[in-house]
């Protein structure tokens, strides 16, 4: 349809039908096997809300979707839009986002998003609530696994890559879907790491850390955005005029669709942010929230508000037009069955090329933190494979449960048999996943079966005793992180620590493969094991890729996108920390005298710094150079470094560049900010010259008056293998 036809369609709708376009009903209103992803307000769903709804979410069955659409169109001139949480993959599930960020390779994320759109668009999905680009620095937060780590730059680069991958160049194509970036904004900045809470942050921090990834995704063409559940300094994001109107609509010129999070508009009234659902509906609509996801606020109140003159119908028309434009660009106004064609019902998604790509993505996202000659393993050795993660499949986050068509993949045990034959290696569970008091109901059922924890440990110890080496597959079960799953204790669950200690008693040649949704407290394990591979949640092909890495048929090349703390007491700890205010002695964190910025019971340094990761080869950095030692605002300078592969295998290395403004009146300016990175493949024995360009934009920050400026003076440029390294060059901005 063209603009004129869209206006005619809009004007043909009754007020109730228009308001219906601004309501998203839960999938369970149409279909019992839809996946519920929040509290569902069922009582009123039998009224005409369902008939007039403009969209719904998380229903996956083409035949049922065709019937739902057919029934809908009997009563409503505008087709239903089917949205879904397709997170990190549809059938083929890729590594979790926090793992993907460790690849420092957004091109891989773009390709993964493209494959995801290709698959999801054959199963009714036209909009995905992805990418999530919440900068997160608090390991207690359950949703830290969904974003791309602690820096604005990685969340920005991976967010843009996902938007391009999902949407491609043509939203009307059969293989693309619309991206909904979330959660806007600072959801990961809640002051105590708990979900649905307050983020107390300065305007400077909001603008320099949490907003840039969203601005970049909007500029990249994301068609939807979802405000977050949290408040920013007391103002709910779903009714935050500064955020949604002044910044998003007026400053960034966003004319896409704003869809609330699940029930969030209603929740504003429930928590006392508005006197009733009519007021919260008015507040959010006036802030530019177009679609009310699941709560009954818009549907049951806007008509009355218009009739008694409290809401201008023009506001509703603007919101409805944005929804109609989205549906039009997706092609469903011309063909309501575009994403649910009968020919898609038995679509063959299999693709060896996609599967090989997924395995490579796992290897590029896995972080080798320690290796004292233990890896790669030799298949001739007598090796015990032990741990709860060695005997289960579905090594993916809980978000994958939303898509019933996901390929759960195989277990480590099955991958070993696939690679070496059935009788070569066996796996034993060795321990329960978690102690009863933190198990979810689902996990409880799974864990209650025999054998007991004692029996499991006994089996593990006897196997470890008779083996030359042990590989332990440990970590945080997927039910222990995610939405509404923050933890005050980020250590390895007790039963698994018990397993580690028992095995360590009888065998010191331990490699640990760690599965986690967040940075865990692993100091003791890290000190006692000889090798440590952090794989996060690797997805459908995780097991095969991990076994290939363990035996050297693939090389891990991930680097941490999150700082790993010594202990929970250091959290939040991150590389882009502000300068300590006084008596900092050495601002990098070293202590020269008692009066220093420090804890008396733990070092200032993390266990592993942001950007850290080893390889099966060694890289040597040399000859760091800068093209000029002064720079004016309209000039650019270049920093270069030589990186030599000194080891015996060809491998990737991620070279990182951080900048420090050495003297600044605004001490919130971070000590080191990641400004650029390059992942280069270097053959053994060869040297690569890696160059970075520095421009004025990289030197800017928000000053005390919230002006975005750069100031004259000295800057240090750190170039190296991670954020803790100290090789730098200097220049002066004049
Ligand atoms: C959830 C999540 C959001 C998700 C939405 C729809 O509460 O916060 O990330 O996209 O509801 O399932």
Keywords:
21 helices; six-stranded mixed beta sheet; 30% helix; Rossmann fold; binds alpha-D-glucopyranose; 734 residues
Task: Report what the structure shows.
This protein is α/β, with parallel strands linked by helices. Among the domains are: 190 residues, 3-Layer(aba) Sandwich (Rossmann fold), CATH 3.40.50.1700; 118 residues, Sandwich (Immunoglobulin-like). 30% of the residues lie in helices and 17% in strands. The protein has 21 helices and 27 strands. The strands form six sheets. The chain has an eight-stranded parallel β-sheet. A six-stranded mixed β-sheet has the order 12-17-16-15-13-14, sandwiched between helices. The protein has a five-stranded mixed β-sheet with strand order 19-27-26-21-22, with no helix packed on it. The longest helix is centred in the middle third of the chain and has 18 residues. Alpha-D-glucopyranose binds next to loops.
Mean pLDDT: 95
Widest β-sheet, arrangement of strands: 10-7-5-4-3-2-1-11
CA gyration radius, whole angstroms? 26 Å
Bound molecules: alpha-D-glucopyranose
Helix content: 25-40%
Could you tell me the strand content as a percent range?
A: 15-25%
Q: Overall 3D geometry?
A: globular
Q: How many strands appear in the DSSP assignment?
A: 27
What would CATH call the class of the domain at 367-556? Alpha Beta
How many helical stretches? 21
Low-confidence parts, pLDDT < 50 over ≥5 residues? none
How far apart lie the N and C ends? 54 Å
- The CATH superfamily name of the domain at 367-556 is Glycoside hydrolase family 3 C-terminal domain
* Largest sheet, strands/sense/barrel: 8 strands, parallel
CATH architecture of the domain at 367-556: 3-Layer(aba) Sandwich
The CATH topology name of the domain at 367-556 reads: Rossmann fold
């Amino acid at each position: 349809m063209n603009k004129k036809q869209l206006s005619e369609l809009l004007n043909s709708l009754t007020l109730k039908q228009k308001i219906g376009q601004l309501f998203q009903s839960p999938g369970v209103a149409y279909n019992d096997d839809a996946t519920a992803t929040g509290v569902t307000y069922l009582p009123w769903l039998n009224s005409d809300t369902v008939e007039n709804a403009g969209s719904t979410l998380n229903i996956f069955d083409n035949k049922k979707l065709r019937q739902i659409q057919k029934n809908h169109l009997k009563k409503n001139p505008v087709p239903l839009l089917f949205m879904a949480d397709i997170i990190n993959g549809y059938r083929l599930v890729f590594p979790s986002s926090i793992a993907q960020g460790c690849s420092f390779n957004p091109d891989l994320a773009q390709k993964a998003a493209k494959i995801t759109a290709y698959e999801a668009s054959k199963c009714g999905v036209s909009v995905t609530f992805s990418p999530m680009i919440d900068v997160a620095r608090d390991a207690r937060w359950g949703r830290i696994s969904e974003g791309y780590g602690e820096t604005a730059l990685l969340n920005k680069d991976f967010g843009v890559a996902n938007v391009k991958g999902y949407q491609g160049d043509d939203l009307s194509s059969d293989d693309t879907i619309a991206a909904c970036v979330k959660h806007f904004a600072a959801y990961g900045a809640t002051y105590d790491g708990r979900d649905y809470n307050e983020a107390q942050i300065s305007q400077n921090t909001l603008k320099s850390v949490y907003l840039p990834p969203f601005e970049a995704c909007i500029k990249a063409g994301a068609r939807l955005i979802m405000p977050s559940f949290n408040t920013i300094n007391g103002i709910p994001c779903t009714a935050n005029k500064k955020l949604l109107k002044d910044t998003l609509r007026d400053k960034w010129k966003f004319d896409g669709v704003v869809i609330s999070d699940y029930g969030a508009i209603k929740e504003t009234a429930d928590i006392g942010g508005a006197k009733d659902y009519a007021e919260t509906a008015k507040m959010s609509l006036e802030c530019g929230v177009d679609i009310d996801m699941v709560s009954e606020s818009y549907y049951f109140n806007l008509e009355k508000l218009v009739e008694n003159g409290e809401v201008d119908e023009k506001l509703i028309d603007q919101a409805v037009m944005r929804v109609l434009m989205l549906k039009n660009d997706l092609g469903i106004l011309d063909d309501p069955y575009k994403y649910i064609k009968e020919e898609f019902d038995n679509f063959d998604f299999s693709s060896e090329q996609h599967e090989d790509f997924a395995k490579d993505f796992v290897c590029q996202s896995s972080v080798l933190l320690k290796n004292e000659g233990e890896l790669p393993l030799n298949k001739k050795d007598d090796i015990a494979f032990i741990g709860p993660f060695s005997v289960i499949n579905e090594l993916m986050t809980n978000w994958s449960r939303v898509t019933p068509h996901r390929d759960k993949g195989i277990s480590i045990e099955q991958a070993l048999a696939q690679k070496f034959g059935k009788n070569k290696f066996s796996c034993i569970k060795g321990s329960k996943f978690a102690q009863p008091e933190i198990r979810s109901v689902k996990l409880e059922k799974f864990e209650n079966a025999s054998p007991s924890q004692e029996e499991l440990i006994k089996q593990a110890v006897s196997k470890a005793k008779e083996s030359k080496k042990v590989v332990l597959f440990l970590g945080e079960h997927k039910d222990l992180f995610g939405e509404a799953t923050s933890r005050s204790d980020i250590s390895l669950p007790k039963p698994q620590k018990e397993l580690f200690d028992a095995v360590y008693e009888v065998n010191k040649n331990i490699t640990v493969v760690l599965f986690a949704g967040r940075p865990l407290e692993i100091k003791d394990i890290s000190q006692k094991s000889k090798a440590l591979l952090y794989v996060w949640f690797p997805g459908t092909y995780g097991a095969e890729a991990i076994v290939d890495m363990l035996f050297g048929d693939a090389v891990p090349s991930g680097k941490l996108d999150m700082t790993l703390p010594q202990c929970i007491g250091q959290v939040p700890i991150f590389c882009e920390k502000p300068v300590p205010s006084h008596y900092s002695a050495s601002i990098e964190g070293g202590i020269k005298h008692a009066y220093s910025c420090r804890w008396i019971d733990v070092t200032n340094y993390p266990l592993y710094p942001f950007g850290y990761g080893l390889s099966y080869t060694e890289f040597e950095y040399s000859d760091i150079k800068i093209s000029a030692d002064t720079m004016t605002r309209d000039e650019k300078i270049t920093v270069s470094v030589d990186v030599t592969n000194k080891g015996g295998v060809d491998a990737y290395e991620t070279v990182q560049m951080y900048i420090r403004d050495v003297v600044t009146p605004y001490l919130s300016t971070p000590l080191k900010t990641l400004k650029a990175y390059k992942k280069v493949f270097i053959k053994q024995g060869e040297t690569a010259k890696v160059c970075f360009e520095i421009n004025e934009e990289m030197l800017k920050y928000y000053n005390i008056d919230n002006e975005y400026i750069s100031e004259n003076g000295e800057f240090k440029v750190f170039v190296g293998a991670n954020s803790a390294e100290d090789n730098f060059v200097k220049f002066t901005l004049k």
